Amino acid sequence: MLDISTGDDGSVRLRGRLDAVQAEKQADAFAKLAGSAVLDCKELDYISSAGLGLLFGTHKRLSNTGGGLRLINLKPHIRELFAIAHFDSIFQID
Amino acid sequence: MERERAFAKEIASLENVFNFLDEFFRLETIDNRDSLAIQLVTEELFTNLVKYNTTSTNPVVVGLERDGKVVNLELVDRDVDRFDPAGLPEVDVDAPMSQRQPGGLGLHLVRAIVDKITFEYAERVMRIHVVKKLETNHA
Fold first, then answer.
1. Residue B11's domain is classified under what CATH number?
2. B139 inside domain
3. How far is B123 from chain A (nearest CA, A)?
4. Which numeric CATH code is attached to A2-93?
5. Could you give the angle at the alpha carbon of A82 between the alpha carbons of A80 and A87, nearest 5°?
6. Contact present, A79 and A54 (Cβ < 8 Å)
7. Which of A7, A91, B11, B46 is most enclosed, with most CB atoms within 10 A?
């Protein structure tokens, strides 16, 4: 299960698991993101290649119009996956 | 394998696959770090079978066993044409964003995480075997 909400600071908060099932279910929600967005991943517990692909596809789409995704509060095991995928040089990760 | 279960060959089975893995992690007192890695590897391999081994709708059997500080994971897909995941092109993770595509990362992640992976095909049965050393000291 993945829950997406908007924080008081305007960030997009991800809570739960972004696996292949959830990546498919949440594709529409990510398609609605525009401009620049901050994804707060503090409560993101799990991500697979399907989830990484969804984030990458969204970031690439937004970057084409001068925006992009900034990721904050990644848990260490998730940050490690970003490094393995060499996404740490593509996304802004704080 | 000590513990095995068959799952319908569809992405929607993932929740049941994860539940099966959770039972194993509880029984074997495998902690979060190792369990997340094994979940990821299982998801990537299972979804690859769903996407690419489309000649059969037979269920996929997922098996697990622990041997000391090692977990053996096996996925068995029966009555399928030969498909060699090892022959899939490697994703170029060093390519610039403009040249990269959202997909194709699954096996790259798996290879980086596991200690050994073998793909066997004989008599129309595909068998993927994974060895993953546990990184944390478990009871």
1. 3.30.565.10
2. no
3. 30
4. 3.30.750.24
5. 150
6. no
7. B46
Q: Which residue in the set A21, A63, A85 is minimally distant from B93, CB to CB? A: A85
Is the interface score ipTM higher than 0.90? yes
Residuewise pLDDT in 10s, chain A (94 residues): 999 999 889 999 999 999 999 999 999 999 999 999 999 999 999 999 999 999 999 999 999 999 999 999 999 999 999 999 999 999 999 9
B99 touches chain A (CB under 8 A): no
Residue B119 within a domain: yes
What domain range is B96 assigned to? 3-133
- Domain parsing of chain A, residue ranges: 2-93
B97 touches A: beta carbon within 8 Å: yes
Chain B interface mutation, best of A1, A18, A48, highest count of B Cβ atoms under 10 Å: A48
The single-letter code of the amino acid at B130 is: V
